[in-house]
Amino acid sequence: MSQENILEVKNLVMHFGGIKALNDVTFDIKRGSVSALIGPNGAGKTTVFNCLTGFYKATGGSIMLHAGGKSTSVVKVLGQKFSAADFTSPVRLIERIKYKMFGGSHLVNRAGLARTFQNIRLFKEMSVVENLLVAQHMLANRSMVSGILNTASFKKAEEEALQRAFYWLEVVHLTEFSNRLAGELSYGQQRRLEIARAMCTNPEIICLDEPAAGLNPSETEALASMIRVLRDNHNTTVLLIEHDMGMVMNISDYIVVLDHGEVIAKGGPDDIKTNPKVIAAYLGAEEGEEVSL
Ligand SMILES: Nc1ncnc2c1ncn2[C@@H]1O[C@H](COP(=O)(O)OP(=O)(O)OP(=O)(O)O)[C@@H](O)[C@H]1O
């Protein structure tokens, strides 16, 4: 797809009762970039991620994902409320009912966007490779009937899922741990497994929520290299939330800064580092804390 932006977020608003978590958030993410969403604690970063990935239905605004050769409205596939205009067009009404009944974050994933979470969410009692196979159940042909009959297409889908799992295990350097329980891996290895699991769903963009949290400096450096590999060798756009400013400035092509639910700056690392609004937001966030951008 030739469209320059893989993601276009316009006037995004998210309210939780009286809390205005996001107010008029607008930004674009370029295809093939590593981009970061930063800001002090409570700025609204995870809320943006939850809206992008379909875990929250935004209160207002639009999110367009241009992947897999088509454009997907994330807000629409989650199932919007009915409006008067729906009843003027049968096609529109049927589509609205379809998304109301069968819509959800799985459709955002199918449209080409995958994510990891701030708190690791692996199946810790399952093996490493099983975690990757479970992630692919939406892609593979695994209907009950084809499974019982063990059809050729079912076997082929199983084989492909296994090949894909081992392919990504190699990329994240976990092949030798494939039969270990996920819960037995070190924290850094579990974070890498989460990335492999997300990549097994063949996304064009992956959203990483604080991937370096809890990692030591050498693990953080290895993670940064892996993120570059995703961008450079696998044509994957990466959008991350990260508090490790060294890593953010080191790997990002583009940075969006949020504060109190609003975008206060956008640009390359050099612009962001010296932006007075950004420095003030970080200094104001933790009084007395040293800030180095
Ligand atoms: N499910 C929710 N219900 C109510 N309020 C919420 C919910 N999720 C987020 N908020 C509020 O929205 C605001 C933004 O929170 P969010 O977690 O998005 O910030 P953040 O930038 O990701 O913070 P951190 O860096 O600490 O993870 C906060 O005031 C938070 O309390």
Radius of gyration: 20 Å
The count of DSSP E runs of length 2 or more, i.e. the number of strands, is 10
Major β-sheet, in short?
Answer: 6 strands, mixed
Q: What would CATH call the homologous superfamily of the largest domain?
A: P-loop containing nucleotide triphosphate hydrolases
* Run of helices and strands: EEEHEEHHHEHHHHEHEHEEHH
Uncertain residue ranges:
none
Fraction in helix: 40-55%
The total count of helices amounts to: 12
Q: What is the CATH architecture term of the largest domain?
A: 3-Layer(aba) Sandwich
Cofactors and ligands: adenosine-5'-triphosphate
User: In CATH's first tier, which class of the largest domain applies?
Assistant: Alpha Beta
- Stated plainly, the CATH topology of the largest domain is called Rossmann fold
Class by helix and strand content?
alpha/beta
Shape: globular
The largest sheet has its strands arranged as 6-7-8-3-9-10
User: DSSP strand (E) fraction?
Assistant: 15-25%
Tell me the distance between the termini. 35 Å
Q: Can you put this structure into words, describing what you see?
A:
- The chain has 293 residues and is of the alpha/beta class.
- It has two domains: 203 residues, Rossmann fold (3-Layer(aba) Sandwich); 81 residues, no CATH class.
- Helix content is 40%, strand content 23%.
- It contains twelve helices and ten strands.
- It has a six-stranded mixed sheet with strand order 6-7-8-3-9-10, with helices on both faces.
- A hairpin with a 2-residue loop joins strand 4 and strand 5.
- Helix 5 packs parallel to helix 8.
- The protein is globular, with a radius of gyration of 20 Å.
- The mean pLDDT is 86.
